[in-house]
Amino acid sequence: MGVYNEQVVPRVTNVACAMGEAGRLRGRVCHGLAGEVVEIGFGSGHNVPYYPAAVTGVDAVEPSDVGWKLAARRLDGARVPVRRSGLDGQRLPFPDAGHDAALSTWTLCTIPDAEAALSELRRVLKPGGTLHFVEHGLAPDASVRRWQYRLEPLQKRLFGGCHLTRPIADLLRTAGFAITELDVFYEKGAPRTLGADTLGVAVSA
Question: Which residues form the Methyltransferase type domain (predicted)?
Answer without folding.
Answer: 38-132
